[in-house]
Amino acid sequence: MAENSPGPQCARIGTDGTVTLGAPWPRPYWSLGDVALVDHDAPLALSHQYRRSQVLDDNLLPVSALPFDASHGPYIQKDGPWLARTPDPVARPYRDPAFAGLVAPRGVEFNYFRLDPRLARPTSWATAPGHPKDLAVQPSTGQLWISTTYGLYRTDAGSLETPGSIDMHEVSVAALAAPEVPVVAPPEMGDPDEWLELERARLIHENQQQGLLDVEIDGWFPTAKLIVTFAVGRFPGVVFARRFSAFTRDGAPALWRGAPTLMDHISLDIQESGGDRRLRKREPGAFGYVWV
Questions:
Q1: What are phi and psi of 271, to 5 degrees?
Q2: Percentages helix, strand, coil for the chain, rounded to the nearest 5?
Q3: How many Å apart are CA 94 and CA 109, to the nearest integer?
């Protein structure tokens, strides 16, 4: 921070895009580093440094330190921000028997907690093994879901309605039923299979002077693929091939448009990933093509 700098500032951004800039922070707070700003009945500046998180006043200036720190988060949920930390630093500041079970970790595990509205202590907390990946609260069932490097965990339905410790249960990801969401082509596309035939003709027209041999359509909307075959002048008699998705997961077009052309893109990608040396190492595969 420059000597004549006014210091870091926070700002409120309204839903209409208006920005209200807070007052510059005094120099003692310049070392907070990166902070996450959340609103939990009061604006908070959450820091990963030990006991450096701050409550902010109406001018978005630090007014008091919070009695905790968190190494992960905040995970912003409708019931307020959730934070994650290894067990002992969560339990130590509160000197409360309720947290006694959090002090002795069983291998790698983290506590996940949310603060009460007075910001004095955690109001709900849970423990899950592994390093944190993500967290979500399902309001309709009152459940907490936590994803870690060890797996997926959830609480019982309604468990968030009662303050205190919450038991986590491991969930088999394979057993989760994924909803079937129909994929619909954009209205302007019309019939997607007829549209794809027109796109095939476009790609051939735009790229045939650059070594493109053919574009084959494999399958139907929305999982159709394009098999692009092409020649490289330095490898006479060899047919190279690459497969592209014709549509995105949402049914929108996924085909190459604009400059550089499709063949320019393929050539550049080959050069950046090994060039001729890479091509020489490839053996013919399906249909006798060399797939790159």
A1: -65, -35
A2: 25, 35, 45
A3: 20
Q: Taking Cα atoms as reference points, which of 121, 128, 29, 34 lies closest to residue 74?
A: 34
User: For residue 31, is pLDDT > 80?
Assistant: no
In this prediction the pTM is: 0.49
Reported as a single tens digit per residue, the pLDDT across 182-225 is 888 999 999 999 999 999 999 999 999 999 999 999 999 999 99
The β-bridge partners of 83 are 113
First to last CA, the chain: 49
Q: In the numeric block, which tokens belong to residue 26?
A: 């005094």
Structure tokens at 271: 């050069």
Look up tokens 């936590």; give the residue.
Answer: 146
CA-derived radius of gyration, the chain: 28
The 10s digit of each residue's pLDDT in 232-291 is 988 999 999 999 999 998 888 988 777 788 899 899 888 888 888 888 888 898 889 999
Strand partners, 114: 82, 124
Identify whether the C-beta of residue 28 lies closer than 8 Å to the C-beta of residue 1: no
**How many Å apart are CA 33 and CA 47, to the nearest integer?**
7
